Amino acid sequence: MKTLGHWIGGKSVESVSGNVGPVYNPATGAQPTHVALASAEEVDSAVDAARRAYGEWSQSSLAKRTAFLFKYRELLDAHRDEIAALITSEHGKVHSDALGEVARGMEILELACGIPEKLKGELSTQVSTRVDVASIRQPVGVVAGITPFNFPAMVPMWMFPLAIACGNTFVLKPSEKDPSAPYRLAELAAEAGLPEGVLNVVNGDKVAVDRLLSHPDVAAVSFVGSTPIAKYIQSEAVAHGKRVQALGGAKNHMLVLPDADLDFAADNAINAAYGSAGERCMAVSVVVAVGDTGDELVAKIADRAKKLRIGPGDDPSSEMGPLITREHRDKVASYVDGARGQGADVVVDGTGYTVDGHEDGFFLGVSLLDKVSPDMDAYRDEIFGPVLCVVRADTYEEGLSLINSSRWGNGTAIFTRDGGAARRFQLEVEAGMVGVNVPIPVPVGHHSFGGWKDSLFGDLHIYGNDGIAFYTRGKVITTRWPDPAESGGINLGFPTS
Ligand code: NAD
């Protein structure tokens, strides 16, 4: 069995901690790989490599950094298929979806290629006599990234390309459930000429995370994962004097107004609820059917749900793959039974689903729960699986109030033909990302991604301009070149212009 170690100082490093974790192929249930779980000392050596690389990298010219970024972009482009296959083999999502993940991650790398434009400072001349003021942004130092299992390539790429483009060095702690794709990203960065120590990968679990959070040489932490851990990361990082952005979980609602095209809405609900087996932080997990749309909409979604082809992600005919682990699959299934017990209509029941020839895989069929109410567990918890809840609402206001009562505020969407209603929704809904007839409004790379409420702890969203602000700190320089003929004179007053 293969054991995946760390990538430190530009080379692969075997773990000496003696601790490993299992990495499964969710389609077969086999466990072909172990992943090293770093000790605190191993984390220290990764941070040390990043700290040593920081001096030269932070001083490197923008031309040198962008030369690397363009080359890396071309190399990743040539390796899209290979990275997608690695994602599928450990996460389970279908190959086309994994390719989409790589493409969306590369958007941020493409943004990073334009970093000279983004790091241009501001200059005001003659703010006072012969006094100029310049604002510049500089890197923060060693940055740590801690990432979730559900986008093993894209979420790390939300972070490190921009961080290193800004002149920082980086230590990535990927999810221990599917570590091979992020590891490969680091190998390819080295192949594209990234100096050793600028990007390091340390595999591990809570031990590694806790050491990153307390390490005095880590200046900033980007985290993406579940809400309880995001909250913990933020408070620990702040307690250790670090800047932090910690993106958490979600429960995304799709509001369907009576005037919507219900076939279009049903197609989109299916794609957004069951794509990647519902293991997306921007998945739609609740449809709010307004007015008299409910029965027809549920019938249309159910009809489509029953026809979905579920199978191994490397089979091109599969539309949905397995879940990440057996335990998670069973937990997701328990919400379907629980909702039935609490009074929901189980219109489509995906529990007990098996795929011929893959009986040990972590498969689950898709489930559709109707007449769900906000007090049911299936509504209250983030299920993170292929379970779609439908809640009925009499009016737009009732639907909006339901969404705004949620503890999460990641993404949301409205489906309507009424521009006025859509405009009202954009302004009134409490969520960080809003779609109008777009079910998964993940912003493109040059905008920023982030939710409100329990979906994000910290101030700045991730990637886009917020990402650049997070990975840099501002400095303002006030300059005077006095005329040699003038004397300065003594003046103890507070300087004004
Ligand atoms: P998770 O919170 O379990 O793990 C995320 C990371 O934190 C991993 O690297 C893991 O090793 C580490 N970790 C786990 N437990 C820890 C602990 N007790 N102490 C310190 N570190 C710990 O999340 P996951 O299951 O890998 O991913 C799914 C979750 O991530 C969902 O809740 C999903 O909504 C969320 N997510 C959010 C976004 C977003 O942008 N808001 C994007 C993707 C995923």
UniProtKB/TrEMBL annotation:
<dbReference type="Pfam" id="PF00171">
    <property type="entry name" value="Aldedh"/>
</dbReference>
<keyword id="KW-0520">NAD</keyword>
<dbReference type="InterPro" id="IPR016160">
    <property type="entry name" value="Ald_DH_CS_CYS"/>
</dbReference>
<dbReference type="InterPro" id="IPR015590">
    <property type="entry name" value="Aldehyde_DH_dom"/>
</dbReference>
<keyword id="KW-0560">Oxidoreductase</keyword>
<dbReference type="InterPro" id="IPR016161">
    <property type="entry name" value="Ald_DH/histidinol_DH"/>
</dbReference>
<dbReference type="InterPro" id="IPR010061">
    <property type="entry name" value="MeMal-semiAld_DH"/>
</dbReference>
<feature type="domain" description="Aldehyde dehydrogenase">
    <location>
        <begin position="21"/>
        <end position="476"/>
    </location>
</feature>
<dbReference type="InterPro" id="IPR016163">
    <property type="entry name" value="Ald_DH_C"/>
</dbReference>
<protein>
    <recommendedName>
        <fullName>methylmalonate-semialdehyde dehydrogenase (CoA acylating)</fullName>
        <ecNumber>1.2.1.27</ecNumber>
    </recommendedName>
</protein>
<dbReference type="InterPro" id="IPR016162">
    <property type="entry name" value="Ald_DH_N"/>
</dbReference>
